[in-house]
Amino acid sequence: MPSGRLMRIHSAEFQAMAARVLRVTELTSRLNVLPFEDEAGKAELFAQILGRPLPARVTIYPPFYTDHGLNLDLAERVFINQNCTFLDYAGIRLAERVMVGPKVTFITSGHPVDPGERRLYLTGAPIDVAENVWIGAGATILPGVSIGRDAVIAAGAVVADDVPPATLVTGAKATTRRQW
């Protein structure tokens, strides 16, 4: 899904995406019950999930979850801890040396805010994480966010806006924006 575009639910594009989600859910279910030391089994399943082998020196500790897999771009020396979720349909890129703590969630798709459109469309925008970023445990990265080189996202932070390079981001306070 290109940045900022709406995808109509019940379209051919949506049906193809839904079929991929079911397939990847099956693959991640199998991945997440393998013995930890089964490197060959994990490598085979990651290749099917991502549509290509994991890059050199990428470490991912299961359990691992993704809804699409084909739009997850991992550079070398990326580290992903346990129980992370990548909803990657609109694209997620993690550059070299990115470290992702446990239970981090990346979300690239959602629904319109307008209640009349909410069940008719999916929205989406890619997430881009630059080199040497550290994302702390339980952080959530929302659609369309870019995180600059050397930034640190504190544990539990909800990131809805771009993060400049070499910046510490904290906080998860919800704010009322408007009412219907």
UniProtKB/TrEMBL annotation:
<comment type="similarity">
    <text>Belongs to the transferase hexapeptide repeat family.</text>
</comment>
<dbReference type="InterPro" id="IPR051159">
    <property type="entry name" value="Hexapeptide_acetyltransf"/>
</dbReference>
<keyword id="KW-0677">Repeat</keyword>
<dbReference type="InterPro" id="IPR001451">
    <property type="entry name" value="Hexapep"/>
</dbReference>
<protein>
    <submittedName>
        <fullName>DapH/DapD/GlmU-related protein</fullName>
    </submittedName>
</protein>
<dbReference type="Pfam" id="PF00132">
    <property type="entry name" value="Hexapep"/>
</dbReference>
<keyword id="KW-0808">Transferase</keyword>
<dbReference type="InterPro" id="IPR018357">
    <property type="entry name" value="Hexapep_transf_CS"/>
</dbReference>
<dbReference type="InterPro" id="IPR011004">
    <property type="entry name" value="Trimer_LpxA-like_sf"/>
</dbReference>
